[in-house]
Every structure is written in C-alpha cells, then in structure tokens.
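name: query_chain
kind: protein
chains: 1
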Amino acid sequence: MGANHSHGTSASPLPATRKTVWATLAVLVPITLATLAALIWLWPGDQRPDRPPAPGLPQVTGMIIGVYPKPCPAAPEEVATSETASATPDTCADVRVRLTSGPEANRTVMTELPSGPGAQRFAAGDDVVLVHMPQDTPDAPQYLLSDHDRSAPLWMFVAAFALAVVAFGRWRGLTALIGLGVTFVLLLAFIIPAILAGESPTLVAIVGSAAIMLTVLYLTHGFTIPTSMAVLGTLASLTITGVLSAVAIDVAHLTGMTDDSSFMLDTGYRINAQGLLLASIIIGALGVLDDVTVTQAVTVGELAVANPGYSFGRLYRAAARVGRAHIASVINTIVLAYAGAALPLLLLFSVGEQPLGDVLRNPIVAQEIIRSIVGTLGLIAAVPITTALAALTAARQTSHEEQPPPPARHRRRDSPDPDAWVPGCR
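structure:
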C-alpha cells in the first residue's frame, strides 16, 4: 500500500508511516477476507431451482428491403374520418424483410407493419427484430415485426465512450473501464443469478457491493492510503444507508411491488420484493458514494501535500468545505435523476389532477422519495467520515515527515573561545 504507486490518488503523495499502513491493513484485510468468503459461499451454482418457464418467443434479426403501403382494414362500426384516411397510408403496409440470423438466415419473408397507437415507424434499410411464431398459430404470419435492432448503434456509442475515456484519462481512464467491466461481471454473474437462485437479496447486495467497491476503487485509484480511506468511508456510509433503508421501508410500509416486474418476481419466482427494494437502494447508493468518498480522500491528500504544516483540524475543516459544496450539487443531481425517471408517471398524476397528498401516498412515488432521501443521508454521512479518516492519516504522515531540524550552532566571531557557539546563526 505504498504511496508511490503509479496509480496513486495524489500526484505527490506523502509517504505513509509504518504504523498507518499496519493499522489500515488490520481493518481492510479482515473485511476483504470476509467479503471473499461470503462471495464464494453465495456464488450461484450451475443448477437452479425449478422456476416457471419464462414467457417469450424466439427472436431473429433482419433488414427491411421493401415497404408496400396498403389500406387499413376498418371495423364494421367504425366511421371513416378524414383524420383516419390521412393516417392510413402511413400506418398500414406489408414489408419484405431479409433475415440476417436464425436457422433461416438470408431468407426473404413478408409480414405486416405494426399499426395502432404507439406503433414504431419502419422504413426500407432499417435493421429490425422479428418474432418467430409457432407453426400451429392460426391466422398469423410466420414472422412478426417486433422492434428496431439497436445493436450496431449501441456498440458504436460504447466504442465512442471508451475512446473518450481513454483519451482523456489515459492510463487512469483505462483502469476505470476495466473497473466498469468488473462491475458488470459481478452484477450479471453473481448478484442477479444469486437472487434468482433464492438467496436473500439484501445479503447478496451487501456482499456484491463490497466486492465491487474493493475491486474497482483499488483498481482505478491504486493501492494507496487515500484510496483505503475512501474504501473505509464508503463501507461505513453504505452500512448507514442500509440501516436507514431497512428502517424507512418498515416505517413507510413499502412492499416493493409497484409494477408488473416486481409482482411477477414475487409471485412466480418467490423473490422477496421488500428485500429486492432494499438491495436496489444499496446498489444505487454505491454508485454515488464512491464518487464522494474518493473526492474527499483526494482533496485531503492534495491539501496535505500543498500545506505540510496543516494539522488534523485544519485539514478536516478545509476538505469539509469542499465536501459541503459537492454534496449540495449531488443532492440536486439525485432529485433530478429520479424526477426524470418518473416523469411519465408525474405527468399522469398531473393530468388526473390528483391532490398532492394522494400523489405522495402512492406507493411508486413514496418508494422513490424514500430511495432518494435515504441515499442522500448516506452521502451526507460519507463526507465527515471519509474526511476525518483521510485527515487523520495525512496529519500523521505530515507529523512524521516534517520534523523541524535541530538548530544550527555557530561560533561567535568576536568570541576568543573557539568552543563558544550561538544557536540559530547561519
């Protein structure tokens, strides 16, 4: 955990004292071993318990090579209007699609263009996804147009994102991308399969978050004392967030079942919806907590390098001012993020002209309010905890390294005694 590591958090970090290193290891090593043991214990095996079959039909990809408009069939009781007539050529058509995947790749098929409210618009040259219908489905084409194939645009944006991160962050950006890959691996290979295998969602979220935190922070910022303080601050704040979340969910009587997905998971897969809600709050809080804790640890380290004479109190107060400004902006970010995600729901409430009290009592809105408040309280707790830990270690390093030199002793010019020395003369 030397401070001269090439991935160090500070550009010119103070060398860590032996006592600080051993104290940090004494705390982090048991936490790491416990996380590793829990990860191995909870890791899902190859065999999963019996679950109801997941609904769905096989999908293939293709490309539209022709669109042939046709009149829309009208219901017997429907009265044609000018508005309907004008919409007919745009919403009803047959399309010719060349399949690009599946057992019948390169085959050309005909199907109908989806129509009706909310239907997507397709044109020749679009990459699309089709659903392969069973052979015994009466009065239905063999393939149904389902959606646009967004694979190519998504990979293009991913490549642009990776190039921008590496171009700006260089080696640090590359390690950040590797850390992001580790996060996705733990989410997809451990957290989701373990919850589906019947493990406690809360326990899985705690272990998975700890594994992500330990791996990603050290991989991205290096094995340094400031990074270790950020890890400890994140762990403490995450614990506070988890406790507050459990209390808030119980007091507010939140069940976690607010949509079809959570209802299906609870009834069909026997997954505790309340535990899943708590797990989502913990994992969501981790993504913002590590930002705050790393910022505070780096701030303290830079202040200690720039002002080696700063004591613990001065380091804490100076870095806390930065933390307060950071928290003020992050709180607004969290609220706007949740408001943006729930914007369609808020519009529905507004159209229905429901009273504010009824809107706030709605379980979906109440769940998001609890999520944002608890996450914000965890962020607020992260600033003093991480700042105090980082300032304590930085002050110890400064006091160890910056010992004042002993006063020089020089001989007086007017003294006949050659052994007469005056302290402090140069």
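note: The longest strand covers residues 59-69.
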